[in-house]
């Protein structure tokens, strides 16, 4: 990988430091697993959802399952085709948010951002819950405890991300490729056995599915159509994660757009192959699944299977059947599926800081999220994300089927708005483009995006109609709350910006004098240092001030002051209530009242400590004083630090670099700045 | 009350402001209720404890109850006599802590302080639990829910104290005098009825008390003696609160010491009268109480009263009997007893800041507790106090009898150490005193304190022996923890003081130059203000610095800078990881490395906001930067505040005065300082 090339391209006159190894651009073979894990992992639960939803109408409805699978595959092709246009048109990594903001305006962008944020939470909740299911099929003792397992897994992921794991390409590639080979290999072997005539049945094949009331005659009439649409909507959960690549274009090698588009295609091929393969095999092996297995699944004799029946996921049943002579194969499949689901959840933890950074830059979230290295801001975000996911897991008891109802609506809102934005994009370009070849290409892209818009719009409507009462309203409500919150934050920033904008030149008037005040309580090194520094700054007026909290101490201080001959006058302020803040603030105000054009510079010694509990013992009064002083216009507060020995521990700790998560997805150091040497003007 | 006098006495050349009305010295008639509520309230549970403890040996043991009551009264007389010496010898309000520290050293003082702190928590727990009992006797539906009632009452007290109620003398006087009149009146009426021959029996008089195994033959042998001693130890809970007056001597009018001593005597007379009266009447009215009433109290036919029997406190039973023709009297007695117990708990919330202030002054607790007006420090203390009390209430389910086991040991540790200190005190004075009248008086006082020491020491031993396994070990463990914590804090402060003590004169060397750096991110008013202030301070080198996080923004800034012709050079720092902290810290360090004798003054604009959530949106990066910069020696950080409009709300809020609790007990403004006008030297 050409670091030299990289260096010259991104920076003018300054080479990358060698410490930046590892944050380099990705080749397609590494980019595919990094960005595809989320999308591929949904094959672990999307086929299940189709069968589960159809089961309401009994066994006969299963016949539609592969047709629905084909429909979902077609939608995926359309969506991928649309995104291939997006990633080549917008290569900065802004993704759907950027497309919406640039083309449709602030509100559309915020809608997408809210949808994506809600989606992150649900990605964690759904993926972890599904992983818990797979864990329970492999380790029988976990059955019935999926909720606890899921919560613990989420906390584990949160902790790892708080510590700052390096999201390296290799760590993603191996498990993802293992997953791909395992599932494709299993499907291939399944078809081989089919050809050989010895494809066994699934373990649930002997069960009968009792239809729900209302579907006693199978899929008839409006109810039947509605059910098929519902199943299709659930199966569309397979499309979640496709947009991740559009956020990660900067991480690709050049030509970035083309490589990203190719990767999208690879993703689609693999995902569709896996999805359709699993779907078809599930039909051939007569997998039976239901939404409430305890009552809907019946034994051959008609008795319900009861509450102790633990419904294995489809892939689990396929593996158990296809590898019935090769038990290790079953555990391998269960393991890699569990791992890919955890990786998919991890993408949410990594994707959030990227999105948060962009939103912070635009002022929709606290601005400190924009500048990296603020470990604390990311930590808060990670904790919030994990917290909300855990709330969902607990509320829905790690039930993937119920969580999915919330999951899909956000994704398709994002898709639909994004396609609309792309249409606007092409329309705008076509108005000015003259070159016929380019025009033809743009019109082709516009057609693709139009088909994409119609498709995703249709699916969105289907999802809203079929899922709203099943839980989608929760997701929509959350999106609305986030939307208003972010709008409110932006309004605040706008108002402040208007308040502080420069309109006239009067802000450049210089104050006339500087009146320096040094706070001393005792005569010790920090005080002497503060006095020395204050003298060095050569103010117009310099005096030391102490507050008479304890008359004996004050008398001692005055004596020592005289004794040492300190060349700065000492003023004693009375304090009838034995507090230090009010007398000093009053004094500062009195100086300002006497000479309104002077500034008052208050020098406050501050202890720099190394351990957290030491902060409780020092500096508290100084902090409160600073806070109070800052309310008075024209008063500056200067902290004169005195580094205690214990601070050296902390200093060393602060210097070790902390890499914010998501570094890989942002394509390395990003646009590095050029340092201009020399003085301007 | 002569404010003018007060003014001239306490201050030289400065009169008290009129806003200090209300914090004046107390006459004895107001001081008695303020300081006696804690001690008097214990008559609400101490007689109960005597009976309950004796009940282990069955009915026959009750004969000892009045004798034990007399013994407790005698101990109280001795203790009060001893404290009369203390309050006249130490009039500063330091109380037992001061006596121990001055005369016996740091460890003894810390022992007393730990005992007092533990005692504060237990005062709240015991008093509130007892108040809950009285509430339940008056309001039947509260029976069985005392724990919840107690917790809610504690939270209520905590909230009131957090808001800062004015502990006014009148608020204390009325309920306390009501209580005294109610109990003394009830006792008097009881004796009148006795004389008239129609004193009824208590409601529990018909019950039989089954002795515990081991006491089948009543109070015999060692076990019997032990039981009597246990009952005596429990009854000594009546002495809690006597030391409060020694902490409040400054609040008395002159002659402070003599008035305090007289008030102590008044307290003793009232308390003993009430206690002995209640005890005697309880005997006369045949009150039956047991530690486990469900199994130990039997009906006439021998069946246990069972778990639904709610054992009313002694005073409750007395009132019910004596006022059987006058039901309002019962409710009045129950109500005033409940109120006085709540007031007693409140004294702990008010006493803690006083003790905390003294310990903070001496460096055993964080120093900011010493200077008043630090609302936050008090709030933390109040919350901690309430929290620990609630933990105890929950752990012991508001059971007064079990909580008492922890209560007494701290009090008597404090008494014993204090008496020892007083002995030392007199011994020291007698060594130098020549005047025979004074010597005689001192020797008399020393004899009193010696008797006090023997008495309290004996009681302490009895308490330790009889109560250790019943729960006193918990209190002792807590005292040990506090002791070590405070010693550790003091050791830390000593170490830091040694580190920062001035030993040579080299700290007075002035740095050679001041290199000012102004941080700008955009050109707006706060930035212009920071530049203007930095220029006004006339440093040797002045430059503005921005970090290149976003190349477009940086370019815009540079253009605008040139366009406005700002007379300060602008330097752009590269930031490959899009963070602002590290480049600035590196730059500051590079300046220091280049010229180690210069100081770097970093001017950082800071937004001053009014609402708490606005702080989340601004200043975060600035705060983190400040923290990091302070680790580098020779770097000062100056905050240039820009007051946003919303800050005016907060400014007004900060200006309203907040009175720390315990003001009344500290005798008003304390030793006010004298403001020295003019310049020294």
From TrEMBL, chains A, B:
<protein>
    <submittedName>
        <fullName>Amino acid transporter</fullName>
    </submittedName>
</protein>
<keyword id="KW-1133">Transmembrane helix</keyword>
<keyword id="KW-0472">Membrane</keyword>
<dbReference type="InterPro" id="IPR002293">
    <property type="entry name" value="AA/rel_permease1"/>
</dbReference>
<feature type="transmembrane region" description="Helical">
    <location>
        <begin position="376"/>
        <end position="398"/>
    </location>
</feature>
<feature type="transmembrane region" description="Helical">
    <location>
        <begin position="260"/>
        <end position="282"/>
    </location>
</feature>
<feature type="region of interest" description="Disordered">
    <location>
        <begin position="653"/>
        <end position="681"/>
    </location>
</feature>
<feature type="transmembrane region" description="Helical">
    <location>
        <begin position="134"/>
        <end position="158"/>
    </location>
</feature>
<feature type="compositionally biased region" description="Basic and acidic residues">
    <location>
        <begin position="672"/>
        <end position="681"/>
    </location>
</feature>
<feature type="transmembrane region" description="Helical">
    <location>
        <begin position="328"/>
        <end position="355"/>
    </location>
</feature>
<feature type="transmembrane region" description="Helical">
    <location>
        <begin position="471"/>
        <end position="489"/>
    </location>
</feature>
<dbReference type="InterPro" id="IPR053153">
    <property type="entry name" value="APC_K+_Transporter"/>
</dbReference>
<dbReference type="GO" id="GO:0022857">
    <property type="term" value="F:transmembrane transporter activity"/>
</dbReference>
<keyword id="KW-0812">Transmembrane</keyword>
<feature type="transmembrane region" description="Helical">
    <location>
        <begin position="170"/>
        <end position="195"/>
    </location>
</feature>
<feature type="transmembrane region" description="Helical">
    <location>
        <begin position="447"/>
        <end position="465"/>
    </location>
</feature>
<feature type="transmembrane region" description="Helical">
    <location>
        <begin position="50"/>
        <end position="83"/>
    </location>
</feature>
<feature type="transmembrane region" description="Helical">
    <location>
        <begin position="404"/>
        <end position="426"/>
    </location>
</feature>
<feature type="transmembrane region" description="Helical">
    <location>
        <begin position="104"/>
        <end position="128"/>
    </location>
</feature>
<feature type="transmembrane region" description="Helical">
    <location>
        <begin position="215"/>
        <end position="239"/>
    </location>
</feature>
<dbReference type="Pfam" id="PF13520">
    <property type="entry name" value="AA_permease_2"/>
</dbReference>
<dbReference type="GO" id="GO:0016020">
    <property type="term" value="C:membrane"/>
</dbReference>
